[in-house]
Structure formats: structure tokens, C-alpha cells
Amino acid sequence: MNQASVTKYPVTDRVREAMAISMRGTEELIPQEDWLAKLARSEATGVPLRIKLGLDPTAPDIHVGHTVVLNKMRQLQDLGHTVIFLIGDFTSMIGDPSGRNSTRPPLTAEQIKSNAETYYKQASMVLDPEKTEIRYNSEWSDPLGARGMIQLAAKYTVARMMERNDFHDRFKAGTSISVHEFLYPLMQGYDSVALKSDLELGGTDQKFNLLMGRHLQQEYGQEPQCILTMPLLEGLDGVEKMSKSKNNYIGINEDANSMFAKVLSISDTLMWRWYTLLSFRSEAEIAALRKEVEGGRNPKDAKVMLAKEITARFHSVQAADAAEQDFMNRSKGGVPDDIPEVTLSGAPLGIGALLKQAGLAPSTSEASRLIEGGGVRVDSSVVSDKGLKLDRGTYVVQVGKRKFAKVTIG
């Protein structure tokens, strides 16, 4: 696009608002002037823009950190644009080399299908399913065939491909790079050609592949897409990116009470970053709320609002209200109304064995560590004796702030 196209359609207040929504929380929007021109054209002509998010279904479960890019898709969807949820069933068989220092084994067709179904079901908690176009890139990649693949490969040079950090680093280190890995960014870029994409979203680690789409669209005589990258969300610790391996995550399939309590556990500083990237409240609402907190309002009020919004998104408003009440009960030392009931045999039963058998600790050694830390209560009394044995009867056992069980020993 050129300057003439930027000025071809008027930049109205609605276009400026759409631009502000597009920019919210983003890492990069490239090139901004082209996206503004596309928004102006769409506003003037009434033709929605085509916005693409490609996902390789390599893992079936997603956490709140994964929804940052989905939230952006939903914001653009609410502006009236067409959202394309592209499942990379073909590219999954190649395996994305992004950020990897070794060749990744490809998935089977059965794994891809199963993961894709689960992933889309979870993504639909954020996206509006009725306004989402679901596509699989095997639609156009399989018919391409050997001849088409060779013609596509001729559109890019090896020298340019080796500019990718992961390829460059692996080559310097003498680590193997398979020829098929060069096909991945080419095929992802070709997806944009096939879909006539106006904007492609991705994480910061996808920038090379996203730019490939722009290049190939120009090669095929299309108007090049813009690219929008979103930052990685810091996890519960506020330091590392949200990750299951770091155990600082909130899974979107977690129960409402755990989800609510985990959001409340984040720092007051991190809360505002989460508001920007995870909340659907307007920036004006968030700014007003932040001003109230800076003026003396308890930051916990704002955190509760965020926790309820996120919990309601993946459960319901009623579940979020119940989770708030549950949290209040626990914070006052109360026992939740709905706790698991467990029946065990072997009275008198040692406290370590009880915690393990009741599913409150993964092992007796971990149970001992929890007792040493003062994190175990029986009928509201802190347990300090690791050798404690409990006779026949029923006890309410608590580990930490959130784990409870009603244990009957026979």
C-alpha cells in the first residue's frame, strides 16, 4: 500500500477508535499506516477485513496466557471484521522450528485432529463461534502438490531464510537443520495468500513467519497483510512468562474457585498489565479505575473485578459470584460448603499417609514438608506433629488456603 491509499478514504472518529483498539497492548503493528488505511477503507465501503490467526494444534490444552492473542481477535471481531481461526493441520506435520534448537518430530494426523477439536472448543470461550470462520490449511496445501511446492520455494532465497535466528544459531553451532523445516515459514506465508488475509496475528516469536506472509502476497500480486504481534503474558509470579512448566499459570479448564483465587494472588502491579491484555473493559474504564486506586481505593477491589471477569468468561457470572463468596469464606477461616468426602481405612492412620491417600499431598515426604511449614489443619487446628495418628471418626482436613477434604477413617 502507498500514501495514496492511506488518504483515499477518510479517517473518521470510528476509524481512530478502531485503530486504538487494534493497538491496545500490542507489541508491534507493522506497518501502522497500512492498517489505518485498511480500517478506513473498510469503514467507507462496509467490507469487513479478513483477520487470520494460525494455530498448530500441538498441545490440546491452553492457559490464560494463550488467550492474549485470542482476546485481540475478539476485540477485532466485535468491530465487525471477519476472524479466521486457521488450524494448521498440514503445517503441524512439518513442525514449526521457531525458537527451537533441534528438529521437532511431526505429529500424526490423528493427534492433530484430536488436538484441533479440543483447542477450538477452548478458544470458543473467547471468540464468538458464530462469527468465526474455521479453516484447515490442508485445504490448499495438499492440492499444491510437488510442482506447486517447487514453484512456491522459488519465491524465497536460502540466504533470507538463514536470517531467522533459530536457523542462524543452529547453523553456527553445527546443529542439524532438515530441508523440510524451510518449508514451514513458506507454507505459513502461503496460508495468507490462500485466505487473502488483511491482518495476521501471532506471538513475538512468530514475526519472521508473519512477515513471510506479506512477502508472498506481494509475490502473488496481492495487497500485503499487516502483522500484529502480542507480548507474552507474565505468569502468577510476575516474572516468568506464563507456563505450565513454571507452574505459574491458570488453565482455562480449572475450576472457578481456583481460577478466582489465583487471579487474586497476583501483585497489585501485575494486575494492571493483566487488565490491559486480558480484560474486555475499555481503556478509559481501566484508566478511571486505576486513578481511583491511586486516589486511595483498595487495589483489592480492582483485583476482585478482574478475577470475576476472567472467571465468568470461562465459567459463568453465577460461578464467578460463588467463587468470590467461597474466597471470602476461606479468608475468614471458614470451610467451603462443597468439599470432597473421602473414606479411608486403617485407623489409627498417620497424618502423612492420610494426606497422601486423600489426595491432599502427592507423597508422604511432601506431606511432612507441608506440616513443617504449618500448612496443615485438622478441624481448624494447625498440625505440628508429623507423627500424629488419627483414630476412627470424621475430620475436616485443610492443606494451604484452598485444599479441603472431609475424611472419614474407618
TrEMBL record:
Ranges for domain RNA-binding S4: 349-408
Superkingdom of the organism of origin: Bacteria
Binding site for ATP: 244
Reaction catalyzed: tRNA(Tyr) + L-tyrosine + ATP = L-tyrosyl-tRNA(Tyr) + AMP + diphosphate + H(+)
A Pfam family annotated for this UniProt entry: S4
Motif ('HIGH' region): 57-66
UniProt short sequence motif 'KMSKS' region, positions renumbered to this chain: 241-245
Subcellular location: Cytoplasm
Keywords: Aminoacyl-tRNA synthetase, ATP-binding, Cytoplasm, Ligase, Nucleotide-binding, Protein biosynthesis, RNA-binding
PROSITE patterns documented for this protein: AA_TRNA_LIGASE_I, S4
Matching CDD domains: S4 (cd00165), TyrRS_core (cd00805)
Subunit structure and binding partners: Homodimer.
Name of this chain's protein: Tyrosine--tRNA ligase
Organism: Caenimonas aquaedulcis
The gene coding this protein: tyrS
